[in-house]
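hey all, quick one before standup. I had two proteins in the batch that finished overnight and I want to keep them in one place so we stop losing track of which output belongs to which input. First protein below, input sequence then structure tokens straight from the run.
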Amino acid sequence: MPEKISFPTHHAVDHEAMKTTYHLRLCGADTQLLRSLACECIERIDELERKLSRYHDGGDVFRINHMQAGETLSISEEAHECLLQAMEASIHTAGLFNPTLGTMIEHRKTKQDGELPEPVGQLSIDPDKAVVTCIKPGRVIDLGGIGKGFTLDQLALYLKEWDIDGALLSAGASTHLALGRHSWPIDLSGVNDTLRIDLKNASISASGTTIQGSHIVSADRANDLSNHAPTRIWARSSSAAFSDAWSTALMLMNDTKIDLAPSQDRHLTTVFVERDGVLHTISPN
């Protein structure tokens, strides 16, 4: 059993959003300021959920997913930035992370009968303006693999404007982002093994099959999870959005590709993976 975790002295607040519990731990001498900042962060989380969730009627992603051919839609700067980061993450992961597979994800999560549906439709995202155009309807945006990490990054940008010592921002147990002068102990718990790491000015995200089962899908049907999927994997990055996306993509890789991944992308600093009941650390060569 690992020793009990001891965090730096902090002000803590929890908030339910995006189908998880956000844990905000803020450090500093001014308790009143920390409480005020925590309230602002909660409002920011709720605002981003409305904009990024495909289930929020009237939100940016909801409206994108209901566009007709030829329609052009103006969206919020936050949704635009998240979409651009999602597409960048797709490029860095060779398409294994894909934010446009909402129909396939829904089919898998709801355990529908039959094979996964083929992705259809085409969207165009303007790189310079917060505008999306529907070329062909049918493509469904789902930012569940990056939205929580993106939200933590946005909170960090806001908190860095204030005179606080640091913070640990968490989206459930799946993504943690540490900022400031403190180092935060994080336990990575597999089925039979636990590894404690120190997180400082970095993010770590987890994906696995032990809780949600086989829920990650790929546009490439050659990526069959059944033969090589790790039970649990973690990705560390300087960006919570990218650690979030990478943890998803790594679940679609075999052992050889996982071992090479940190050496092939600057956004991925470390991988932790459970193999045969033991947690292994994979760093760039």
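OK second protein, same deal, sequence then tokens:
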Amino acid sequence: MEEIHLYEGKTSTEAIQNGLKDLGLKKDDVEITILKEEKRSFFSILEPRIVKVEMKIKDTKKSNEKKIIKEKKELSKEAILMATNNIQKFLDKFLKQVSSEELNYSISDDKYYINVTIEGNNTNFLIGYRGENLNALQTLLSSIANKEIEEKVRVILNISGYREKRKKILEELAEKVAKTVVKTKKKIVLEPMSAYERKIIHSKLQNNSKVITESIGEEPNRKVVISLKK
């Protein structure tokens, strides 16, 4: 089944760029259709111009393979060792400073990423509202891991199984909202989400025969819109 996504912008070029950036693909990987705009009335002439485009991924398997190859580059043993040491030095001090309770961490790698897991009795403050603190800490760890390393090292942080729990919640939300859209025949705009969370929504509904998903807006307030297929 073809994956269809909708994107918008002030111009067709901006809408296309937003779509390609969100999907992580190149122009050659998608079929682009500029959707017909509604005729603007005199009273709406001062409203911001919005152009919508539809993107169909030509070959899902091929596109995904290209994306994986682009994103995944095997790290050298030296880079993994240096990045791990950098993270260890930071976490040994950081975790003692932010909590009086014992917090444990583990570091592993899968040749492509450095995986950091933090566990403890009270880790909610590290996770924050819907993972905001977790994502900020992950960004910080990535910066620290790359210190004095020529290769680009990506760090994936998980705290007390939050990633798995959040993914389940988002997948259930996607299914529930999709059913509501089909029932009411009205599109629904979700609250702003990170690229990681938007991807979960898109992936969950990409094979749904009745609805399509699109991302609109600018970071960090980019949102997923779920609407009926035409």
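Flagging for whoever picks this up: The domain at 4-71+169-228 is CATH 3.30.1370.50 (Ribosomal Protein S8; Chain: A, domain 1). Residues 38-46 have pLDDT under 50 and may be disordered.
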